Amino acid sequence: MINNINLNNYPLWTALVTPFTESGDIDFTVLEQLVAEQQAANNGIILLGSTGEGLALTLKEQQTIVEHVCQLAPTVPLLVAVGGINLKQQLAWVEYCNQLPIHGYLLGSPLYAKPGEIGQTHWFENLLNASTHPCMLYNVPGRSAVDIAPCVIKELKNHPNLWALKEASGDIAKFEAFRSAAPELAIYSGDDALMPYFAQAGAKGLVSVAANAWPTQTHEFVKRCLSGQHPNLFADWSDAIQSLFAVANPIPVKVLMHIQGRINSPYLRPPLTHLELSQTDCINNANNTILSWH
Question: Considering the domain boundaries, does residue 251 fall inside one?
Fold first, then answer.
């Protein structure tokens, strides 16, 4: 595992899925293959986010996944997701992961409770204080039910462990508000489809679901967006991303990865199920289009 690494050198971070067997156990052999694919594409890796069904795993399973990937000693950096609603438990999780050779954390907003500015600041400040690594905060109101307030980012912007923000509200105005609140903060798009727009607005990169299925193609697309080139693949990309979010993430991407032969089973932890995606024509068509890029 590499220790001295500049996280800003990685414009694409893959929110890695958790592969399961048909019986619902973690498929560690496939997990190793997925890590190798992301390493080959030079993509940073995020473990146990919502795409990785982290909240549906037991604490022991979470620990085992992080430890297993660390033992693989990938040459790309690892972030570990911190989520949930119980601050004491999340602080314990951070303290546990601090002992492992990871590179940072993705700190999600507390779920369900809908805290205001003071509660949000308290939550993130405690987690930032506990961490021994750089942290990326995660604004995802579609899952947490509340936006991170820009004033929270402004309050925390000088914290030595605050490195970045993943903005996944789908609102470019929110991106601008965050950038105004903390001009030096690295902001990453949390929406695959919006990457071309976020790049023009000054985003540092993308935290991606699509990169699970298309590691090298997504890397190339982000590179083109950030270089200022007009992404002439945008129409294809937009259609492909739409197919990956036809039902709740990560259902479509896991079904597609199963079709691709990347994972052995499309199994998801309840309450998610691959049976929600009854038609696969769209993801098949998207896959054929994206894999035809040269």
Answer: no
